[in-house]
Amino acid sequence: MSHLSTRARVATATVVLALVPLALASGAGAAGKVVYQTTRHNAGTPNSDIVVRKHGLIISYGDSAIIYNVPSPALAATGQALFLQNCASCHGTEANGVPANGTTGAYPNLVGLGPATIDFWIESGRMPAADPRSVQAPRRQPRLTHDQALAIAAWINSLSPSYPAIPTVNVKDANVANGMALFALNCAACHTIEGDGDALAAGTFAPSLRNIPATQVAEAIRTGPANMPRFTGNLSDYQVADIVKFVTTEIQHPNNPGGFGLGGLGPVAEGFVGLLLGVGLLALLGYWVGERSE
Ligand code: HEC
Ligand code: HEC
Predict the structure, then answer these.
(1) Which domains does the chain have, with CATH numbers?
(2) Nearest-CA neighbor of 20 among 187, 137, 135?
(3) Which pTM was predicted?
């Protein structure tokens, strides 16, 4: 009995996974440009072996796959000044999404998002936004430096300390074959198995992953920017490191000799890999559903 219910749960999870792009498609399609209300508040608490504290404050946590660093509170004053210059016109002087003219709901509240979210949006060049009315703020050449991003993250974090902190991924010890399997299951539906990205509903798109540094890949996975789901408890740090390794080696350097080799197979063979993975998933699903109804 417990056997069946486990299978049923796995089958449900598989269905949910398969429906994610559909749900996004219908949601975004119906509403067009919705008023942005973040659901990412304090995403993911540390499920890790190592927690380093100083004066009672967590300064880093993690395990041998990923160490998450909290930017130093000493940077907060600099960060506040930078925020007032570059961000407050839209997100408000309190970073709560309420600009000087008092309109609520037009811009996201940044308090409680966690340093990884703030760092990702600045270091990927999405923020400060060029056009606040665009459906999806695009990746651009960053306007601020790495140190400035850390300072702004430190100030916002000082308003309400939150997770996740900024990941440093141990790519060296990660497993690229596991990473590919996990990528096929969790990411390829939107980004394609070759990582080139694809259009989603209502003018949004899953971007190409060909040129994204390891830290930002891990940040995207853990924080789920905009229409991307966020993966917290369902992927361990070890699994995230495996995916990051697959993205930063096989996807970004497909002809790397001695690599895992998917890139070298050519489009037809890769199509087959995709087909096999897809059909395999359906076959498993059929098996689980069949088992349940007996
Ligand atoms: C011109 C207006 C504007 C400015 C200036 C601006 N932002 Fe934004 N910000 C936006 C809009 C609009 C969105 C929603 C964009 C989207 O969903 O694609 C956003 C989204 C974000 C998000 C994602 C929020 C979430 O819930 O995931 C973060 C983080 C962020 N901004 C940080 C900053 C920081 C830090 C600065 C300054 C360096 C800044 N922004 C400057 C308009 C602005
Ligand atoms: C439901 C579709 C969907 C799934 C599934 C998905 N993503 Fe995304 N991803 C997106 C969208 C949409 C964006 C762009 C968000 C934005 O620009 O605001 C994105 C952005 C990213 C970025 C940032 C790229 C850039 O241009 O800065 C990375 C890295 C990324 N995804 C990796 C992944 C990985 C790895 C997985 C699997 C663990 C995954 N994504 C699963 C839709 C998805």
Answers:
(1) 1-37+172-294 (1.10.760.10)
(2) 187
(3) 0.81
